[in-house]
């Protein structure tokens, strides 16, 4: 991105943050903000935890007042994907608001799922992930609301659909606006390199519609491609050439990729009819691939048989896709080209670390800090991030690491490229490089207990084997699981996997000790991690109870975890005022 475009993006982003700041804790006027903010949840337990956190955020005046916040959970049973969540959310909105729904501006943020690629966000949810800016400190919820703060006033009643693990930044000139006023679907589009298009949705634009050189333009889309190959993009006419705000070299090839989309209430009615026709869902529907591929004058039914990008193929998926296609076919797909924009995905540990500690562009655009709302009297380590934490002056935090909602005692240290979340790191303890450590509060045998999970930053928690006998294919910090067990003097046959016995992975491996307090929980788990990394032995005390990350979430004590955060908040506030 050239310097001028970069400067404009930074200025526009800071202005959006300023606008949301002015609304936090203030009663909003009609038409000034969203009428309803909907957050989707995977199940009833996640729904209750989201509602509790939204209530607390409202009490702390972190959100605009007078806005209706709703959390809708997916129905029990098979996973239904964000497309299924969209349909059920519409049904619940319709049940609550009836006819008046057609006069409301709604934002629907998909936040269901258990964040297995960023487990520090699993217990409280990705939508409540903290960012090092703002006071009170921003979470993803406020960041999403800030980036779209200008949309409600330029939008006909309808629904804006977005996800909880990405951020879209854009700038437009003062005489331009992003308007959602057309029938059907209207999607935001961002100029992206071709390789980005292979993992996103890509828009095929009408070549006959004259392109302007403005920062924003609305055009019609002939067809939507879902995670296409390079050849597919070229053959479909999706590849553009020329000057876009994102690319400084004129003539460079790019494609327009997807992020967020809007639909009006006539379209919402069509989607409600679709749910009635489909009945209870038994497979995952993609709110992007399965809805948008049905749109545009050049859409074909071919995609309905392509299950290459589907995580779990169900026999009914093709039939359901075909019903969606026939119902939505002919619905307009308009695209708002945001020519000076950026799309950031923050859904994995490596993305999280990069964007919060190394990404010079995003840090400048959002004004991210090295230390946000923390007591940290140490000299600043460049390229690390500390949020809502209390650190002894003698502590050190390595470059590329994030420490959040934690306490670090005297002479404690965190290596480089690590995540320490919700932990109490005792005096003199050293977290190694590239480590993930996260303490959770759980209910265990009617008592409040603590479990600290640990992984390597690049470990794949979702990779599964079909039996415990194949556990060595599972790697913890690049070490086979049976070898890890030998370092802790645990027999292979003693290892338990929670949940589905035919799917054994790091997520459901019962590896993590249950302890009576937060500080001992951390030190016990740290010794286990250090034994694996050094090749030494660290036998666990007899009768130590072990839990999996999966079990920790099922028995989490959210109230206690939030209470610990409150204590940190009070501690930091009091000590800052007294200093």
UniProtKB/TrEMBL annotation:
* All residue ranges annotated as the GDP-fucose pyrophosphorylase domain in the record: 99-516
| Recorded superkingdom | Eukaryota
**Keywords in alphabetical order:** Nucleotide-binding, Transferase
| UniProt xrefs under InterPro entries | Fucose-1-phosphate_GuaTrfase, GDP_fucose_pyrophosphorylase, Trimer_LpxA-like_sf
Under Pfam families, the record lists: Fucose_pyrophosphorylase
List, in alphabetical order, the GO biological process terms annotated in this UniProt record: GDP-L-fucose biosynthetic process
Which GO terms fall under molecular function for this chain's record? Answer: nucleotide binding; transferase activity, transferring phosphorus-containing groups
PANTHER family per record: FUCOSE-1-PHOSPHATE GUANYLYLTRANSFERASE
The protein's name: Fucose-1-phosphate guanylyltransferase
